Amino acid sequence: MIRILLAEDQAMLRGALSALLGMESDIEVVGAAADGEGAWRELQRLGPDILVTDIEMPGLTGLELAQRIQRHALPVKVVIVTTFARGGFLRRALDAGVSGYLLKDAPAEQLADALRQVHRGGRAIDPQLALEAWGEADPLNDRERKVLRLAGSGMSANEIAAQLNLSHGTVRNYLSEAIGKLGVGNRIEAYRLAREKGWL
């Protein structure tokens, strides 16, 4: 049996994925989590073969979760199922050691087949995205990305500084660097462009 843990913040989708995968004779959904931190706890408790995760989740994104799994060298493979059809996300996912990257509008049997392929040690990547991913390189580093994401959510430089335990000046430097690298006029334009490219 292929033991699966699901991480998806939308309850209806989490239930649908669980039901669909549960219909496969060789796949067992052993647990589900509504956010990244919950998924991290369940991973350690259940020791599944594969984590199927969304990218956007409260607390810890699917990509951050994959990076944490990679850092701790946990013996679990990661498959991302998302609506984000952007090459930038796929590049970051592959850098984080992800074995699969599929879109939510793919047919259900494609997901089951992808899980089998990943379980055998292969990779399952949406082919159209794979082509896109090797286009433009992501110019942002992790700190710039984090600061820009918070700025895009409407937080001021002072609020970002408090949340990330940085000085106000450091936050302004990160924002300036991101704006400069992206060749735009301000933080809102930088956020929009980075989001569009899949770099956030």
Automatic annotation (TrEMBL):
Keywords: DNA-binding, Phosphoprotein. SMART domains: HTH_LUXR (SM00421), REC (SM00448). The keyword Transport does not apply. GO terms for molecular function: DNA binding. Residues 3-119 form the Response regulatory domain. The modification 4-aspartylphosphate is found at residue 54. Residues 133-198 form the HTH luxR-type domain. One of its GO terms (biological process) is phosphorelay signal transduction system. SUPFAM superfamilies: C-terminal effector domain of the bipartite response regulators (SSF46894), CheY-like (SSF52172). InterPro entries: CheY-like_superfamily, Sig_transdc_resp-reg_C-effctor, Sig_transdc_resp-reg_receiver, Tscrpt_reg_LuxR_C, WalR-like. This is Response regulator transcription factor. It comes from Luteimonas marina. The lineage of its organism: Bacteria, Pseudomonadati, Pseudomonadota, Gammaproteobacteria, Lysobacterales.
